Amino acid sequence: MTRRQTYDGVVLAAPFTAPYTRFSTQSAHWWMAKALRGTLRAAGLRKEQIDGFCASSFSLFPDTAVGLTQHLGLSLRYLDHIPMGGASGIVAMRRAARAVQAGDVDIVACVAADTNQIDSFRKLLGGFSRFASDAAFPYGAGGPNMSFALLTDRYMQDTGATRADFGALCVAQRSNALNVPYAMMKRPLTLDQYLDARMISDPIALFDCVMPCAGGEAFLLMSEDRATALNLPFARIDGLIERHNAHSDDPIQGRGGWTLDIDDLYTMANTDPAGIDLLQTYDDYPVICLMQIEDLGFCAKGAAPDFIRNHDLTITGTFPHNTSGGQLSVGQAGAAGGYIGLVEAIRQVTQTAGPTQVRGARRAMVSGFGMINYDRGICTGAAILSRGDT
Amino acid sequence: MSVLPPPRKSPQQRTTSPTQPPQVRSRAAMALSAAAAEGRFVLQVCPECDSVQYPPRDACVSCLNTNLMWQDVDPSGTLLAQTTVNISVNLYFRERGDWRVGTVHLDAGPSVVCHLHCDCVTRGRVRLINRLDRAGEGVMIALPEGGKATLQSDPQLNALSSDPTHRRVLITDARAPNTPMLAKALLEAGAATVFVGEAESWLPYPTRQALDKVKNVEILPLDVTDTASVQRLAAEIGGKTDILINNARFLRPGGVMARGSTGFASQEMEVNYLGLMRLAQAFGPGMCARTADGVNSAVAWVNLLAVSALSNQPGFGTFSASQAAARSLSQNMRADFRASGLRVMNVYAGPTDDAWQQPVHPPKVAPIALARAIVTGLREGLEDVYCGDVAQDIAQRFRENPGLLEHEVTAGELG
């Protein structure tokens, strides 16, 4: 395999979150505009000053990023639409970074946003993918709860993980989320509450599930020189991997595509798991967080339950994880769920995270996981970001 | 696990509206539904690299060959994981409460998300079957391997079958030679009552005595050639007919050139085609409204057809035409009944052992064989049943090449 080039000279800046709401009467276009405007304001730019745009959304139909250019009045020389759910942020960053590096574009705004109207979640599930409507949805119509329940059942059989292990992760994330004013979940969560919660699709109970909501996330990609000229705090991309439909012969998913490229990721970033100050995993269900902790090299395969037992995953803990509370506590704003960890990581390494700031955070890992096309997540990616002044 | 008889229904309570499991399928996946209609477990296999595919695809996952073939595949596998869906976004599943689902790794290769029989255990061996759900689409069901598990032995899966237990059945023609046997078989299969339609009650007929001897049979006036008669009976028992078996039939040997009039042909159409339509118009709406009405909800409509409905048999040419018309109408009924989940099951038979087919060579279908095929078909929730060797042979040829079958039959090879 060809050695990847580095991402030197390209940086991430102006992280912005359009505060989430449980339901919204507005459209995805409205949320897109809100998030785009937010990131531009954070950078002190007018929309005429960007020449690249990348969108991710589940609820834009019948539009794509194309419709948004005219709707939002954007004239561009780089336009992308990434329908990869939880991997959208990582993939958006990779493509845009390469385009900036190559000089195809100067500034790319990467935006993920979705609305959540009454009943829109049900409608999304029914037509999520061809394999899902042919071979998953007719079986109990449990949507991702059902799919992840099966993966969780298998993971528990294989590793001896207990519900309390998943609970510990959820409790820690809730504690982090209490610092986030727009989090859907505003009250502390105890392990007992987690364990006593009503079953949704066993072993998945209420607090294993994300709450669908409306919201948006955005950031800008540009050259380091431009960020410096604009006087913006920025994050560097030390390494980045992307992989789709890996391990397709595994009868049931117990690992993701990260395992194929993780060594490459650390080599590019010239670091190792011990050099990571905080981790943002894709957390649509806790089992996937544990899988990522393993596959990203923080512990051996199958050892994540032990790892969770021996670490404090809160902002001030020994292993800060999903510092903004993640989707489990803040909510899943559709495709913005694929950005939440990345936008928070940019804030963390640029020391702009405010109430969720991990002290001395210099290097963050962000991981993405997306799209249960049939029985497993297809898209995976991960990146290591570091603070710009190093 | 046996199903308890239904409590008496209160006329003050609203009858539960029928809901459906998700019905959207790709064209490729609909081939599974077509196989489920006959109770067959099939998967796509690549003829070039032998790779077995699931979910249904348009190209081979191993070699990109776009010419995948559906074929019978070993249904054995291991249950890897399971869950009980407590909260569903779909009304049909919500109404039914906890619903078990699992992931089965087939020995043949793919992993299959499927409905689970209650006796399946994690890491245990299972076999998959492919059956129609109440949306009329094929779904995979795991049963414990080797065991005698049936759809009926699981309360969740029983909803996929059209089991006669506790149900009230209408058989439309008391005079048909097969009626006493059908009535007996349905009652033995657990039916609560068998109503039998009788035309021209003043005319004696040989099967009447036999019918009188069967307990829980009620003989009621019904002439399928008389719209008013059909409507009268529907007004009387339409609200408690759970399974309707149309065995009314008029048959005379001969084709177009056998005689110089259309007299018999029009009687064939009057009974076999228009009779079915009258029944559908009178009984269909009431049955469709009651497909969610508890243990003894309306569940299936059974048409007894001659297999010559598939391809005209010259020795019974005009009769075959009426059977083809009835078959075509049954397809229309399926479309119209679809939203309710009321199943239309066609039971095709070859020549039967009755007076007008006396000169036909065996094998012939005996009433008991027909009765068994109906009961099995209902229990398995099938849509198409081919009863006896002749019907199965013709069906196989029809599936392979309808044009070739026509040539074989009209050339007298199979006539």
Structure summarized in a few sentences:
The complex is a heterodimer of chains A (390) and B (415). Chain A has 390 residues and is an alpha/beta fold.
How would you explain this protein's 3D organization?
The complex is a heterodimer of chains A (390) and B (415). Chain A is α/β, with parallel strands linked by helices and 390 residues long. Chain A folds into 2 domains: 10-119 and 213-229, Thiolase/Chalcone synthase (Peroxisomal Thiolase, Chain A, domain 1), CATH 3.40.47; 137-210 and 234-381, Thiolase/Chalcone synthase (Peroxisomal Thiolase, Chain A, domain 1, 3-Layer(aba) Sandwich). Helix content of chain A is 35%, strand content 20%. Chain A starts with 9 loop residues before the first strand and ends with a strand. In chain B, strand 5 and strand 6 form a beta hairpin. The longest helix of chain B has 27 residues, at 263-289. Chain B starts with 26 loop residues before the first helix and ends in a 5-residue tail after the last helix. Chain A binds chain B through residues 121-122, 125-127, 130-131, 133-143, 145-147, 149-151, 153-154, 157, 198-204, 248, 251-252, 374-375, and chain B through 21-22, 24-26, 28-29, 54-56, 61, 80-90, 92-93, 99-103, 105, 111-115, 122-123, 133, 135, 137, 139.
For the report, how would you describe the main beta sheet of chain B?
7 strands, parallel
Major sheet of chain B: order of its strands? 11-10-9-12-13-14-15
Radius of gyration of chain A: 19 Å
N-C termini distance of chain A: 30 Å
Q: How many separate helices of chain B?
A: 11
CATH architecture of the largest domain in chain A: 3-Layer(aba) Sandwich
- Relative strand content of chain B: 15-25%
**Which of globular, elongated, flat, extended, rod-shaped describes the shape of chain B?**
globular
Number of domain modules of chain B: 2
User: What percentage of amino acids of chain A are in beta strands?
Assistant: 15-25%
Quaternary arrangement of the chains shown? heterodimer
- Element order, helices and strands of chain B? HEEEEHEEEEHEHEHEHEHEHEHEHH
Spans of chain B of 5+ residues with little confidence (pLDDT < 50)?
Answer: none
Alpha-carbon distance between the termini of chain B?
47 Å
Series of H and E elements of chain A: EHEHEHEHHHHHEEEHEHEHHHHEE
* Low-pLDDT runs of chain A: none
Give me the side-by-side strand order of the main sheet of chain A. Answer: 3-2-4-7-1-8-11-10-9
CATH homologous superfamily of the largest domain in chain B? NAD(P)-binding Rossmann-like Domain
